[in-house]
Amino acid sequence: MKAFSKYFTAFATGLLFLGTGSCKKALEETPYSFYSPENFYKNESDARAAINGVYAELYTYDLYLQPFWNMTILDDDHVSGADWFLGTTGAGNPQAYFGWEKPWVGCYAIIARANTVLENVVNINTMDEEIKNRILGEAYFLRGWAYFQLVQLYGGVPIRLKSLSAAEPETNIPRATVKETYDVVISDFKNAETRLLPLGHPKAGETGRVNQGVAKAFLAKTYLTMASGAATGNVTVRGGTDNGYYTYAKTLVAGYEGMDSKAYYALARDKAAEVIDSKLYTLTPSWKDLWSIAGRNNKEQMWELQSLAGTAFVNNLGAYFSARSTFGQGAVWTTNNHYKDYDEADARVLDGITHNYTTLQGTNIFYPFAQAALYKVVNGITYNNTNSTTAERAYTIKYSAVADPSVANSDAFYPLLRYSEVLLMYAEAENEVNGATTLAYNALNTVRFRCYPTTGTLATPVPAAYAPANMTAEQFRSFVLAERAREFNLEGIRRFDLMRWGIYLQVMNKISTGQNNISKVRARRNLLLPLPLNELNSNKAIPSNNPDW
Fold first, then answer.
1. Peptide bond preceding 547: is omega within 30 degrees of 0, i.e. cis?
2. Per its UniProt entry, which superkingdom is the organism in (predicted)?
3. 3-state secondary structure 312-351
4. H, E, C per residue of 364-394
5. Which of 297, 388, 420, 545 is the least buried, fewest Cβ under 10 Å from its Cβ?
6. pTM of the model
7. Which of 376, 380, 350, 351 minimizes the C-alpha distance to 365?
8. Mean pLDDT of the chain
9. Per-residue confidence band for 459, with pLDDT thresholds at 50, 70 and 90
């Protein structure tokens, strides 16, 4: 198994996730060489360096330097972009993209490094026990996170819970079932939950590290994914060529047969409730401020992928997603149809979409043409674009707050978990267990209230902020799914939502050809990514690829 054996020994690298006071120095440290366990795992400093090496894999061209977000964000019904960028994964052709094998490689690199940490840090007797336990918890979490990504993207995968060494020399490991893979995910997240420390604890770890609340939230997310994959019923989605409302009969997701949907929803609800009841997290009052430089690592951004200007740990998210880009204009934007799914008073389009900008080449552009009265002339500046394909692009602000927008690689942060998702997970799960109760409505409306202006001395949300009253369970389900699309637009969540609800093919094919002539036509093979060729060639226990690849 080449993807695994390449990384069988953990390596240590400069600490990626420190607070601002020591971040730059740590990020610039020269990575250590590979170490054998008998020569390395001697003290707390070694343990810290080793867990840093697990986190470090997130920051490579295996994962978040581009391939992982490219293959998740670009493949849904609400994204459009330049054909030169979306013509591969964005058009349902992942094997045409240079990084198509990388998510598999990156996730198994994390697993291999985490295994080595778990096997060796436990034997260090000269370090603070709370910090030792926390580092072990981080390793369990990151291994569980990697298997969670793998099972969603590829289905059941080979399970490796030991380092590739004399203890487990066999490289030919067959694929586990989907359920068996989820059992590992749940076990790892539970182990992480018991070892990690809560947010605010003095030994909880540096900024950007996972903590107990993050482990609880991902455990809830795992249960929610399993529950919805096994659920039955209908889901109504806005889309198609006419942006109408269409009701789809949910398809049971392959591999989720026999799972008790309601039981897993109850587990998801209860675990999300633990995060909510801890009162350690809260929504950022201003949705716009959430995406500012000052809003990084706040109590809503539960886990963010850190970045730092002036170091090697930067990315090109700002150039690809922002209106004002080194390309002239960004290569990825929200579809006009999805823009219309927001209420006009919603801050997520009032402030979250770029309505006026000047390109680096000096062209003034406003969006959308239909709202010219609001955006054509602003602060004395006239934006002269017409209703053309180059102007009718809804660019998000989520990756625009960077130190220097004129450079291709900048310090955009990437959200891996937000507290608003915990609230919406609770709303979805409570509805599936008990119907659209007051508790479900409260969680849903908490997310919505933040996005609307307030009136009166009691800061009462405007009427549009409230979700429609008296919804049936099916209506509430569909509304929460749409709310997740509005809240997490271009954060890599929508594709997974369509997949776990078993409506991905129906929703995508209802569009057929989307904005900017990007193909949304999908076939059965698009339900799972293809396994890497190196894996098929080296692991003889896997006789064939995923269906139709």
1. no
2. Bacteria
3. CCCECHHHHHCCCECCECCCEEECHHHHCCCCCCCHHHHC
4. EEECCHHHHHHHCEECCEECCCCCCCCCCCE
5. 388
6. 0.93
7. 376
8. 90
9. low
